[in-house]
C-alpha cells in the first residue's frame, strides 16, 4: 500500500544513526518516512536481503513490525531478524557479513536511556556490516527532504518469538537466535579452553549488562560456554526501559559496578556494556581502565588471543582518543591512523586491510572481525591477556605505563546546553584559533591550534569541522567538539590529554594531572563562565 506523506523536514543521521525522543519516532508516519528515505537513498531494496534487530528498548518490537512490512512492500527478498527483534550492534554487523546481506537496520539509541519518554534510534549499516558512511547518510538526508510517499504492506504482524521462516507479502522473514552466530565467532577468535581454565581456577568477574542487550550474549558466553559462576552477569535481562538504568558504561552511569569493583568484596575483573552492546568499560579490583589506555593495552598485548596471534596490520583511533595507542604502534612498527569521531570512519581502513584494531575514547574498541565496536569482544580480549600473562588488571596497566609512559586523559561533558550558546562558544573559539599560537592561557603556552579535517586514505573523501584542537607546550592537548548523538539541547565535549614519559607521577589522579590544561581551556573558551555551570555534568 502506498501512503502519501509530507516531507519530514530533513532528518539528518548523526554520529551514529538517527536518534530522537521515542515519542517523536512514534508519531504516525515518522519512522515510516525515515525508513522509506533510507530505502530510497540506497537505491531501493528490491530483491535485497536485510538484517534487522535492536537492543530491546521500548518501541523496538513495534518498529521492527513496521520495517518488515515496509521492506516487503518495497520488494525486499528476505529479512533476517533476531528473535524478539533483539540483536546487539556487533551481532548485527556479524550477521550482515556472515549472511552476505545487503545491509541492515539496528533499532537502538545506544547508550541513551530507553522508554516512552526517553530515546529511540535507527541506524542503517551497509553490506560490509559497518555504519553508513557519510556519503550514504547525506543521501538519506537528501531523501528525507524529497520523500512524498512510503510503501507498507497491509499484512498481519510476524511472530518474532518463533525461530524459523515465515512469509510476509512475498518476502521471507527468517527469525534467528540472536546470540548463537556471534558466540560462535568469539570461539574462533579466542581460546575458550584457556578462558574456561581461568574461571575454573577461581577467577571472578562481574559483567554488568545494564538491563540491555548484552545480557543474553554475556550469559551464553561467560556463564554457559566459559563456566563462570552463575550470577557473574548482572542486570542480564534486556528490559524496555533498561529498568531505569542509563546504559552508558562509564564511572558515572555504571556506578553500581564501580562501587562493587572499588569495594572490599571486589572480584578480579569487572566490565559494563552499553544499550546496544558495542561499548565497554573495563575495571580491575580497585582500578578503572580509561578507554584510551584500554585500546593501547589491547594493541600491545593482542597476541594473547589466537585471532591476533600473527600481529596487527595497523591500528586506528578517533582524533579525540589519546595518543597512548600511537606509542604502541610506533613500538610495533605498524601504522596508526587518526580519524574523526564515529565508527563509520574506520570502515574503509578495515575493509582495505590497513588496520586490525580500532578504538575511541568513548568506551569503544573493536577489530576487523566485524565493522562495529564490540563490547564483549573487548572483555574477551582483556580476559585473554589476564589468562596468558597471569597478571591482574592493575599489574597489566602498571606494566604498560612503565613501558610506554602514561597518557593522562579525561573527557568533560557539558550536557543539555542551549544550542545557540554551545554553538557560540565553539564559533568564538574557532574564530580565534589561528591567533592562539604562542599565546599563554592560564600560564600554559599554546603551540598550535586548528580544526580537525580528515581525508580518507582509501576513497579520498574529505570530512571537515571534526573538532577544535589546541596543542600546548609539553605535549598536552585539548579538543572541543559538539556531540552528534544527543536528543536534548547541545552537548559540548571537552577532551583533555597530557603525556608523562617516565614513571614519575604515575600514581597521580588524572583530574589533578590535567588541572593546568583544564584551567587553560576555561581561560580560552570560558565554558563554565559563559554557561553559568560550575563544572561538567559527566567526567570520564
Ligand atoms: C558518541 C561518541 C562517539 C561514538 C558515538 C556512537 O558520539 O563520542 O565516539 O562513536 O557516540 O556510539 P558523539 O557525537 O555524541 O560524541 V554508540 O555506542 O551510539 O554506537
Ligand atoms: Co552503542
Please specify the SSE layout and strand pairing.
Blueprint (H helix, E strand, L loop, with lengths): L1 E3 L13 E4 H5 L3 H12 L7 E6 L5 H14 L4 E9 L2 H10 L4 E5 L11 E8 L7 H13 L2 E3 L12 E5 L2 E6 L3 H10 L2 H9 L4 E4 L5 H12 L7 E2 L20 H8 L6 E5 L6 E5 L2 E3 L1 H11 L13 E4 L5 H9 L3 E4 L7 H5 L5 E4 L3 E4 L7 H15 L3 H12 L1 E12 L1 H14 L7 E2 L2 E8 L2 E2 L6 E2 L4 E5 L3 E7 L7 E11 L9 H16 L1 H5 L6 E2 L1
Parallel strand pairs: 3-4, 3-5, 4-9, 10-11, 10-12, 15-16, 15-17
Antiparallel strand pairs: 1-7, 2-6, 5-6, 8-9, 12-13, 13-14, 17-18, 19-26, 19-27, 20-21, 21-24, 22-23, 24-25, 25-26
Helix pairs in contact: 2-3, 2-5, 10-11
Detail the poorly predicted runs: none
Shape: globular
| The CATH homologous superfamily of the largest domain | Alpha-D-Glucose-1,6-Bisphosphate, subunit A, domain 3
Count of separate DSSP helical elements: 17
CATH structural fold name of the largest domain: Alpha-D-Glucose-1,6-Bisphosphate, Chain A, domain 3
Give the bound compounds.
Answer: alpha-D-glucose-1-phosphate-6-vanadate, cobalt (II) ion
Query: What is the makeup of the main sheet?
Result: 7 strands, mixed
CATH class of the largest domain: Alpha Beta
State the strand order across the main sheet: 2-6-5-3-4-9-8
Percent strand equals 25-35%
The quaternary structure here is single chain
What radius of gyration results from the CA coordinates? 23 Å
**Which structural class do you get from the secondary structure elements?**
alpha/beta
Helix content: 25-40%
Amino acid at each position: 500500500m502506498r501512503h502519501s506523506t509530507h516531507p519530514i523536514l530533513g532528518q539528518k543521521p548523526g554520529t551514529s544513526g538517527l536518534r530522537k525522543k521515542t515519542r517523536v519516532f512514534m508519531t504516525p508516519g515518522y519512522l515510516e518516512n525515515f525508513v522509506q528515505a533510507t530505502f530510497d537513498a540506497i537505491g531501493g531494496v528490491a530483491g535485497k536481503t536485510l538484517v534487522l534487530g535492536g537492543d530491546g528498548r521500548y518501541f523496538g518490537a513495534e518498529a521492527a513490525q513496521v520495517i518488515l512490512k515496509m521492506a516487503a512492500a518495497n520488494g525486499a527478498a528476505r529479512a533476517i531478524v533476531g528473535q524478539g527483534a533483539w540483536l546487539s550492534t556487533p551481532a548485527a554487523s556479524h550477521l550482515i557479513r556472515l549472511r552476505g546481506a545487503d545491509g541492515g537496520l539496528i533499532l537502538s539509541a545506544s547508550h541513551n536511556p530507553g522508554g516512552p519518554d526517553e530515546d529511540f534510534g535507527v541506524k542503517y549499516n551497509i553490506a560490509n556490516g559497518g555504519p553508513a558512511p557519510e556519503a550514504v547518510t547525506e543521501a538519506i538526508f537528501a531523501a528525507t527532504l524529497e520523500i512524498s510517499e512510503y510503501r507498507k504492506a497491509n499484512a498481519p504482524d510476524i511472530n518474532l518469538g518463533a525461530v524459523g521462516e515465515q512469509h510476509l507479502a512475498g518476502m521471507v522473514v527468517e527469525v534467528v537466535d540472536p546470540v548463537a552466530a556471534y558466540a560462535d565467532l568469539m570461539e574462533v577468535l579466542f581460546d575458550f579452553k584457556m578462558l574456561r581454565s581461568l574461571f575454573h581456577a577461581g577467577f571472578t568477574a562481574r559483567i554488568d549488562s545494564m538491563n540491555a542487550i548484552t545480557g543474553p550474549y554475556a550469559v551464553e558466553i561467560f556463564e554457559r560456554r566459559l563456566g563462570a559462576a552463575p550470577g557473574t552477569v548482572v542486570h542480564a535481562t534486556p528490559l524496555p526501559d533498561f529498568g531505569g538504568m542509563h546504559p552508558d558504561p562509564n564511572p558515572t552511569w555504571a556506578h553500581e559496578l564501580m562501587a562493587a569493583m572499588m569495594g572490599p568484596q571486589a572480584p578480579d575483573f569487572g566490565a559494563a556494556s552499553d544499550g546496544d552492546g558495542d561499548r565497554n568499560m573495563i575495571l580491575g579490583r580497585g582500578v578503572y581502565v580509561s578507554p584510551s589506555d584500554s585500546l593501547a593495552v589491547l594493541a600491545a598485548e593482542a597476541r594473547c588471543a589466537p585471532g591476533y596471534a600473527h600481529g596487527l596490520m595497523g591500528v586506528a583511533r578517533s582524533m579525540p582518543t589519546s595518543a597512548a595507542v600511537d606509542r604502541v604502534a610506533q613500538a610495533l612498527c605498524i601504522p596508526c591512523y587518526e580519524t574523526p569521531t564515529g565508527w563509520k570512519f574506520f570502515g574503509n581502513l578495515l575493509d582495505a586491510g590497513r588496520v586490525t584494531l580500532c578504538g575511541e575514547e568513548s568506551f569503544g574498541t573493536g577489530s576487523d572481525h566485524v565493522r562495529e565496536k564490540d563490547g564483549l569482544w573487548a572483555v574477551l580480549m582483556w580476559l585473554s591477556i589476564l589468562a596468558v600473562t597471569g597478571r591482574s588488571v592493575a599489574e597489566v596497566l602498571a606494566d604498560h605505563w612503565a613501558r610506554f609512559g602514561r597518557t593522562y586523559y579525561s573527557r568533560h561533558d557539558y550536557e543539555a546546553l542551549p544550542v545557540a550558546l554551545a554553538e557560540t562558544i565553539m564559533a568564538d573559539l574557532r574564530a580565534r584559533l589561528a591567533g592562539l599560537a604562542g599565546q599563554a592561557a592560564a600560564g600554559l603556552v599554546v603551540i598550535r591550534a586548528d580544526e580537525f579535517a580528515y581525508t580518507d586514505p582509501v576513497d579520498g573523501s574529505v570530512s571537515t569541522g571534526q573538532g577544535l584542537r589546541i596543542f600546548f607546550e609539553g605535549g598536552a592537548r585539548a579538543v572541543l567538539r559538539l556531540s552528534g548523538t544527543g536528543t536534548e539541547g547541545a552537548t559540548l565535549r571537552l577532551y583533555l590529554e597530557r603525556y608523562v614519559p617516565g614513571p614519575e607521577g604515575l600514581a597521580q589522579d588524572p583530574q589533578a594531572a590535567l588541572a593546568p590544561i583544564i584551567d587553560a581551556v576555561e581561560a580560552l573558551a570560558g565554558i563554565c563562565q559563559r554557561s553559568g555551570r560550575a563544572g561538567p555534568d559527566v567526567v570520564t
